[in-house]
Predict the structure of Apea-like HEPN domain-containing protein.
Amino acid sequence: MSNGTGKETSKPLISDDISKIEKSLGLGYVNTDDTFLIFDTPEKNGIRQRDAAIHVDSALKILESIDRGGSRMKEVEGWLDPSNGFAEFEVRMQGLGPIRTTNIEKFEFDTHPCPHEHTVDPPLTYDEGRQYFTAVIRVTSSDGSTCIEISPNTLLCPPLTPISTEPKGHTRTHSTLKVFLAGATDREELERKSRELANSFLFELNARHRTVYSLRPRIEGFSQKRRGKTISYSVRFPRTPVPDNVAALFSIPSDFTMRGNFTLFYLSYYQILEHYLPAVHRRDSVKKVRRILRSLDFDEEKDSSVLRVLNSVERSHGASEADQLRNLIEECVPEGKLQEFFELDHGGHFDRNGPISGVSAINPKSGEPLASQVAKRIYRLRNRIVHAKDDVRYAESKVLLPLSHEAMKLYPDIELVRLLAIEAIVDNR
């Protein structure tokens, strides 16, 4: 089978062809420059460069694959070609591992005769145009039916980069992970099986050989940054005492070295709320006991009166984190601040059909107190980030991975929990 790395003879692309490629890649066609198709991204602040370009040969190969049922992957960047039982994943290499061009010849790769057509072989391939070597890693199942390979990309998975970055006459390449199965495979089965093999292979490269690759998540674009509060232009002498650990947590989302780690940003602000949960809970518990003691009908000689105190203390002791969180918001965050936040245009982010699944929607007009709705949402979102339990009880709310599509849409939720953290700090000074 052909895996799409060979040279193609370019032919004109008609408008219908370009429309198919646009839809498949999720990009908007701009024009053709010599032998490159230039695309614009749907969101200018997205992860991709503005003037993403692919060579016409790649466009033709992608079009051929589309016509026989090929398509882009759903959750990670890559391509599926069911008619050939072929999957190609974009990968990122994290630093320099032991398996690299300078010492790759020390490694032995578990390969066997197979029916697949490979255009390069381990351990190295040479790029004449750019005059450098690239490592080739390949393993084969014992029966020869399945191959897994990391090597320069095929024409189906070209890097989407500005044409201006490429020397004239050269097409940039990057390493991708390829899975070759025995033959034509149902699309869903191909995606499932190839993903399982890719995950297993990358895990072992990391665990056994300290060579770290990761699949590149499919990211359409970051959520728009809508500030939850206006900026003050009056700089004053500080009045708000802040504990060391709270100060450190609050600064993490602003640390440039942490850029893009939205789940960490969310948890940093959430941990500030956790810091104040015990104090606010104790304060509320004491307030409730004092209210009972001050009641006109309280009589310390009556068992019923004493039991009211005991019941209040027991309820306080058995309060869940979710209950304590709701109480903190009720006690520390003015209702008007929440109303002001949700009056902003968040682009439907907090609606029932918003981009984050497995969390509660926020509807200020539902009749349920905003504090209660907010507490449910941020607690469930926190659980999606920190819990990775292999349990059917959590099947409906999968773990929210740091570099997932949903993680890149978290910004409004981060602004919400940031607002809560600020109000908790101010209320507890």
